[in-house]
Design goal:
The protein has about 425 residues and is α/β, with parallel strands linked by helices. The chain has helices spanning about 5-10, 20-25, 60-75, 90-105, 115-125, 140-150, 160-180, 200-205, 230-235, 265-275, 275-280, 285-300, 305-320, 340-355, 385-405, 405-415, and strands spanning about 30-35, 40, 45-50, 110, 130-135, 155, 185-190, 215, 245-250, 260, 335-340, 360, 360-365, 370-375.
């Protein structure tokens, strides 16, 4: 007897979905309103916003808004129509690609429609069924989904564990010796949940011993790390050893889109074989023109990156000096680890938002182990030292309530209703 396809969905909403009736609209799918900035409105109240990846504070910069409006007036939201290969190619796209390639010190670059779709499609296009992918177990969901499309073998190595990586490179080498394939190693430049930089420098040293190509997703490093914000490869001094460099426009550039950069022959191959670009509409010119302006500011105006890091250092040092566990972050991403249950986490976050005017993202099981609460803060160039002081004071108060059982009692009262 055939089972109803929807039966599984009716019976199991998933580890996060089961909380939907209590969480939706507040803890998940919240509605932040007003201009993108350090202060926004949530449920009609002003809050300090630590959940927006506008690292350089460009989203509402007057000159950025001006360019965006002028580009919208000139091009509208539809131009160019069609995929790049057919009718959606423009001189603006070419210009942006040349500027990006020069900025990240690669021979060529290719602009993509979206970050998530972009890295997924990059992985899919780079490998064949005879190849092996070796990737960090803590890789972002977009990388995991790209790897899922792979018809050949894939191995994970322990997070930032070079010994584990080498063991898996040995396995991969043995495997491809029979298939005639190659090996692709994938790491993030900055891991967006913990804030740790990938061990790119250590990974590339293994190239002397093993024959592999290296793909880096630098979504959180582009714009924030390295000379002029050119990324984690520059920060660690190994940009030349990265074979395919990927970054998104959705974070430091406060926009939509992404790009890959590599030697020209590889980029040419991607242009003619990446299905998500061959069969999808080109990135609109209004976004391309905006990206050109944003890149110009990144390259020529270091004050935005400097202001960002002033705020990062103030926030992270303040948290550490007050005894908070922020893990081993080496980037702007600022995780704060606390012990508690999911119901306690909900009460805690509500207290932060309603009584202290602090809005940050909450991460719980299954993303992190049971019994832990992760509050993830994203400092930006738009924040102020006053924002940091208010937040540190609020965090000290919520820690007391968590440790003395106040949140546990409130969560039990809520569950009893």
């Amino acid at each position: 007897m055939t089972r109803d396809l929807f039966k599984r969905i009716y019976e199991n909403k998933g580890p996060l979905g089961k909380w939907a009736s209590q969480a939706e609209g507040y803890f998940v799918f919240p509605k932040l309103e007003g201009p993108i900035s350090n202060r926004m409105k949530f449920k009609g109240k002003d809050v300090i916003t630590w959940s927006i990846n506008d690292y350089l504070g460009l989203a509402n910069l007057p000159e950025i808004r001006k360019i965006d409006m002028e580009a919208a007036k000139e091009f509208g939201s539809a131009y160019p129509m069609g995929a790049r290969m057919m009718s959606g190619h423009t001189g603006l796209h070419e210009y942006l690609e040349n500027e990006l390639a020069e900025f990240v010190n690669k021979e060529s670059a290719y602009v993509l429609n979206f970050g998530y779709q972009g890295i997924l499609s990059t992985i899919d296009t780079l490998v064949s069924k005879n190849d092996v992918i070796v990737y960090d177990v803590d890789a972002h969901a977009c990388i995991v989904d790209g790897v899922r499309l792979h018809l050949g073998k894939r191995f994970t190595y322990k997070h930032n564990d070079i010994e584990s990586l080498e063991k898996n490179l040995i396995r991969a080498t043995n495997f491809v010796s029979n298939t005639g394939g190659g090996i692709l190693v994938i790491s993030e430049g900055v891991f967006g949940m913990r804030g740790e930089q990938g061990k790119l420098k250590e990974i590339v040293t293994l190239k002397k011993k093993y024959n592999f190509r290296f793909l880096v997703d630098d979504a959180h490093g582009f714009g924030t790390l390295g000379d002029r914000g050119a990324g984690t490869g520059f920060e660690q001094g190994i940009q030349d050893e990265i074979d395919v460099y990927f970054a998104t426009f959705a974070k430091s550039m406060a926009s939509t889109g992404a790009f890959i950069a590599a030697e020209k022959e590889i980029i040419d191959f991607m242009k003619y074989n990446m299905r998500s670009q061959m069969f999808a509409k080109s990135l609109q010119s209004v976004l391309v023109r905006g990206a050109i302006k944003r890149l110009e500011i990144m390259k020529n105006r270091p004050e935005f990156k400097n202001r960002l890091w002033d705020n990062v250092i103030a926030l992270q040092n303040g948290l550490k000096n007050n005894g908070f566990d922020i893990g081993s972050t080496q980037s702007c991403v600022t995780p704060v680890y606390l012990k508690g249950s999911i119901p306690e986490a909900m009460v805690l976050v509500k207290d932060l938002r309603e009584n202290h005017g602090v809005f940050c993202s909450i991460v719980v099981y299954p993303v992190i182990p049971k019994g832990l609460i992760l509050l993830r803060l994203i400092p930006t160039a738009s924040h102020t030292i006053e924002d940091v002081k208010i937040t540190l004071k609020a965090f000290s108060k919520i820690r007391i309530n968590l440790e003395n059982g106040t949140y546990n009692k409130l969560s039990e009262a809520i569950e009893a209703k």
